[in-house]
Write a structure and sequence with these properties.
It is a single chain. By secondary structure, the chain is mainly β. The protein is about 0% helix and about 60% strand. The strands form 2 sheets. Strands 1, 2, 5 and 6 form a 4-stranded antiparallel beta sheet that branches. Strand 3 and strand 4 form a beta hairpin. It starts with a strand and ends in a 14-residue tail after the last strand.
Length: about 110
């Protein structure tokens, strides 16, 4: 498989992951992993995305996944492809994104009645 790009963008409380392939050969799909540190051994599987190419072999495709990290902070993401024999290949480098949740604070009204 030939990966063209893997990137992340932050919007509100979510992270949009985008990736594209130029070509896929015997590709079953993709695993997405996330960790609060840049260490794949601590990453958790968050999503499986099946190949968009029928039969797993053909010219490339584009993919996207919307993730909601459990807490704010910097998160690292990894993309791995899984071939039709069950072999997983993790692509490096990982992508990192800082997530800040937007919180509204309601204060008591202190005016005269």
């Amino acid at each position: 498989m030939e990966l063209l790009y893997f990137m992340a963008s932050w919007n509100g409380q979510t992270v949009l992951l985008n990736w594209a392939t130029a070509e896929e050969i015997d590709n079953y799909g993709f695993n997405l992993y996330r960790a609060p540190v840049d260490d794949f051994s601590l990453a958790q599987l968050i999503h499986f995305e099946p190949s968009a190419i029928q039969g797993g072999t053909g010219s490339g495709a584009t993919y996207r996944y919307l993730d909601m990290p459990p807490v704010q902070g910097t998160w690292w993401y990894w993309l791995a492809d899984i071939d039709t024999h069950g072999i997983q290949t993790v692509y490096n480098p990982s992508v990192a994104i800082a997530v800040q949740f937007q919180t509204q604070i309601y204060l008591p009204w202190m005016g005269k009645r």
